[in-house]
Amino acid sequence: MMKITFLGTAGATPTKKRALPSVAIEYKGRIYLFDCGEGTQRQFLKYGLNMSKICCIFLTHAHADHVIGIAGLIRTLSINKRTDALSIYAPEGEEAKIRNLAHFDDSVVNYEVIVKPIKTGIVLKNNDLEIRAFKLNHSVLTYGYVIKEADKIRFIKEKAAAAGIKGVMFKEILKKKILQINKKRVPLGNISFLETGKKVVYATDTRPCKSAEKNAANADLLIHEATYTDALKTFAKDRKHSTAGEAAAIAKNANAKRLILFHISARYKDTKVLLEEAQKIFKNTEVANDGLEIVL
Amino acid sequence: MMKITFLGTAGATPTKKRALPSVAIEYKGRIYLFDCGEGTQRQFLKYGLNMSKICCIFLTHAHADHVIGIAGLIRTLSINKRTDALSIYAPEGEEAKIRNLAHFDDSVVNYEVIVKPIKTGIVLKNNDLEIRAFKLNHSVLTYGYVIKEADKIRFIKEKAAAAGIKGVMFKEILKKKILQINKKRVPLGNISFLETGKKVVYATDTRPCKSAEKNAANADLLIHEATYTDALKTFAKDRKHSTAGEAAAIAKNANAKRLILFHISARYKDTKVLLEEAQKIFKNTEVANDGLEIVL
Predict the structure, then answer these.
(1) Active-site positions of B?
(2) What is the interface pTM, i.e. ipTM, of the complex?
């Protein structure tokens, strides 16, 4: 079960209702944090998430609104007695800037903080998740992330029983892929199926781009920025952002299952206009609000 | 009229109810900001203060919880079309650290941001206010600030009328200090009195110290940190902070008129214990809460 919490959903400037961008993905007791805008540590408190569960932070780009929160968060984690190392992934070339921030209060931080440069490709892979970076199209070097749950082999109870599989044999067939039972060969594939892991895609900040579309293919959830509506497409182009309509087209072309509009400009007090624009193109759209929680 | 708004009143870590330290003093349409913890820009929105009125920022010391907010604030002011230069005063020797933060998103900032080193003494003086820095006793170089409204000459209506002062003569006597009216010499002092300007003192983070006591002499308002209660005096000593009782003793010895306890540790959900401890020593004490507004 993957729990996605939208901690901050604002565009470049916060509002009373929207904090600066940050999304927490909790999976098997660990939180993978995507962006960390100013105030993120307080959003953890507000929405009852345990910040000590953060295992690593993935930054999309080095603009202040997406990263400033790391300095205070790192400090607070230390005051809260963290001892585990913390990895922060940032676009290659921006490490110095991010390190300055990450080590701002080094004298009070009692655990290791490691800033790691990323390129296109796999950033992290463990037994639970694979996290892959892909290039976006913004005013500075920016990466989106694909968060893919590991596929799981699920046994088909009836078929396993009919083949005589029981007890430790389940573990054995997982390892050997085939077993000999009562002189019959039982391949793993005959008694199981592959459950595809959930796929979440985080794409901000960006113009609509082929790379986002390709990487969002068949995503269970696409979180795509929609700073403006089509009425402000000129702004969107100039500032290298997307409109709600453009985000929806990406979701549609990628055959995503669900779209969340994110990184909303402070000018939209009422987001109905963004929602309606997107839903004309891609029905299963929502606008993110701070505190929105999605379980996959 | 001086309006003091407590934007953030937390100690080292924020809580649901307390943002990180920042105090805005608004005087004649300008905001003088003291410290700028993470999230300060959002606190401006929350409490309906206009951040475009900020004329300068005074930092006490370069710990993250007091300064991180400048990066986002500077950025947002630029997005909001600021053109006036912004001065940030920081303890001498910390300029590089503060400049890194202040210029984090330089490419999107369209006005001048100047980081100025301060020493003990006058930091800023204009027709309205004098702002003076004095040393505190913390784990790093830290300054408190005395904010002193300019004294004002007030005419005594009846005496001015009896001396024959009218119309432009008021301006004239203010300039010349003495006028000759109907062959009589009228000194300014005979028809006016000096109204002493209000004095506010901002002292955080610090152990109780003679310098704070001396600089807070006869203050109309003393804002003094009180991170802990006396029960945790060992913590206070180790971490170079004050207890509520110690802050109250400073207020008492300084003959201050009013004390506000500030920089409250996250452990005190209920601040009654801090208040009671302080009031035993100095009656006119309050505990700051985010959004507290005081008009002098």
Answers:
(1) 65
(2) 0.92
